[in-house]
């Protein structure tokens, strides 16, 4: 798959458990009373991955508060901040940013996959916004992958009387995308479009890495992306990882157990949330697979 889609799908796909562990970490810190379970989130997934291993039930049941990156995002807020951050407002156009030949390639791509996106509209959209759309176009070609089967949707369904909170908000997440320079985002966009035909190749690579349950496999992919697109990696992962790790550490100061869903890319590579927490002397223990299905399913 295109490198852009690789990075985005790391945060979208389901973290399957394999071997003797699942991708959930129990986090604690010396002399602090709290405990946190960190699990890779899934925004979209497949029905065949359910029910989840019973290890998920145990961590979920032990927790009084469930944290999502954004709990039940408001579509109006998404539209508001997307319009604010996703459009050129300084007189620039997409063709000026990426050059006329690449702009023509973007137009040809959209003529095939999303004909309603006419060149005049494309000119107004910043490259980061189009990069997200390219990823969505790929996912729409695969209806077996659905938000209905996303980990966030499933855990929301099973909340019961548990309290649900957000780690971030729409503005924070979209501003992180917006803060990527148009030049860097333009390179990502063109890489995604040029290699779109081979999208399934890298997607299968990601799934193979996820199914091992070994975070080092994800780290290889994430570190490659960090090398090729350092600004993208820094803004969307490293800086946010630091902020999320700080929030997790503050949670550990209270006598409580929390369950936290965060995208898979935030657990992998240099500057991951796990690394940030270990730098604060936290202990992170990956949970063992129970080997039998739990009750968590769509």
Explain what the structure shows.
With 298 residues, the chain is α/β, with parallel strands linked by helices. 52% of the residues lie in helices and 12% in strands. The protein has a six-stranded mixed beta sheet with strand order 4-3-5-2-1-6. A hairpin with a 6-residue loop joins β1 (21-28) and β2. The protein starts with a helix and ends in a 10-residue tail after the last strand. 39% of the residues are buried.
Mean of pLDDT: 86
Q: First CA to last CA: what distance?
A: 28 Å
The fraction of residues assigned to DSSP E strands is: 5-15%
Low-confidence stretches: 8-18
- Helix count from the secondary structure assignment: 14
General form: globular
The total count of strands amounts to 6
Relative helix content: 40-55%
Helix-strand topology string: HEEHEHHHHHHEHHHHHEHE
Roughly how many Å is the radius of gyration? 19 Å
Briefly note the structural class of the backbone: alpha/beta
The biggest sheet, with number of strands, parallel, antiparallel or mixed sense and barrel status, is: 6 strands, mixed
Strand order of the largest sheet: 4-3-5-2-1-6
Key attributes of the depicted protein:
6-stranded mixed sheet; globular; 298 residues; 52% helix; alpha/beta; 14 helices
What's the helix and strand layout?
Elements: H1 3-12, E1 21-28, E2 35-41, H2 54-61, E3 65-68, H3 75-86, H4 94-98, H5 100-113, H6 119-124, H7 127-140, H8 151-157, E4 163-166, H9 170-178, H10 182-194, H11 199-211, H12 215-228, H13 230-252, E5 257-263, H14 273-278, E6 283-288
Parallel strand pairs: 2-5, 3-4, 3-5
Antiparallel strand pairs: 1-2, 1-6
């Amino acid at each position: 798959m295109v490198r852009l889609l690789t990075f985005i799908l790391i945060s979208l796909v389901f973290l399957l458990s394999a071997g003797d562990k699942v991708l959930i970490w129990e986090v604690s810190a010396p002399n602090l009373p709290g405990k946190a379970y960190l699990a890779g989130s899934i925004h979209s997934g497949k029905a065949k991955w359910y029910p989840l291993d019973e290890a998920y039930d145990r961590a979920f049941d032990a927790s009084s508060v469930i944290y999502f990156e954004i709990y039940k995002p408001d579509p109006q807020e998404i539209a508001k901040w997307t319009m604010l951050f996703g459009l050129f407002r300084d007189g620039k156009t997409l063709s000026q940013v990426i050059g006329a030949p690449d702009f023509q390639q973007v137009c040809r791509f959209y003529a095939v996959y999303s004909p309603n996106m006419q060149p005049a509209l494309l000119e107004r959209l910043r490259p980061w916004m189009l990069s997200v759309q390219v990823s969505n176009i790929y996912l729409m070609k695969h209806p077996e992958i659905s938000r209905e089967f996303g980990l966030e949707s499933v855990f929301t369904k099973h909340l019961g009387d548990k309290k649900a909170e957000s780690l971030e908000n729409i503005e924070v997440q979209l501003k992180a995308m917006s803060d990527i320079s148009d030049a860097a985002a333009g390179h990502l966009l063109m890489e995604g479009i040029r290699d779109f035909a081979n999208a399934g190749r890298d997607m299968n690579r990601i799934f193979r890495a996820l199914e091992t349950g070994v975070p080092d496999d994800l780290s290889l992919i994430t570190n490659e992306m960090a090398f090729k697109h350092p600004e993208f990696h820094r803004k969307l992962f490293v800086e946010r990882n630091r902020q999320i790790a700080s929030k997790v550490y503050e949670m550990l100061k209270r006598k409580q157990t929390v369950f936290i869903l965060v995208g898979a890319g935030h657990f992998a590579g240099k500057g991951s949330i796990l690394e940030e927490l270990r730098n604060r002397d936290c202990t992170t223990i990956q949970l063992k697979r129970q080997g039998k299905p739990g009750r968590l399913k769509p």
